[in-house]
Design brief:
This protein has no helices and seven strands. The protein is mostly beta strands and 127 residues long. It has a domain of 77 residues: Sandwich (Immunoglobulin-like). Strands 1-2-5-4-3-6-7 form a seven-stranded antiparallel sheet, with no helix packed on it. The protein is elongated, with a radius of gyration of 17 Å. The protein starts with 16 loop residues before the first strand and ends in a 9-residue tail after the last strand. 11% of the residues are buried. The N terminus is likely disordered.
Amino acid sequence: MGCSSKETFQTQFPIPISHYFYQSKDNQTHFFIEFQQAIPENIKLEKLYFKNQTAVIKMISSQKIEAVFIKNDFILDANPENEYGNQLPIAEKPKFNLKPTEAILEYSHKNKLMHHKFFDVTEKSNN
């Protein structure tokens, strides 16, 4: 008999989160997370998982981060020669089974790898 491993998520992030949202523009999705205070040195933000994609975290300020997801554009043309250079999509099983309105922040806290799950992620207009 085998045992199944079910991922457990942190219900509360070590520091308060002000808000989170994403913005879509062209072939990119920008996911933002804002914290109520500066991120302490003992917390290292690693990756963000959203809509079956993974992105690295970029610090915008001590209280705001961004993760950019890029969707590959394909050239579709009546002339197959113009489609040269299209890359085949990599069929990779997502690490997490997420709903379209969920995201997971992977981070290490005191050298322990942890995951925080976001629910009800909303899109904010670019205006």
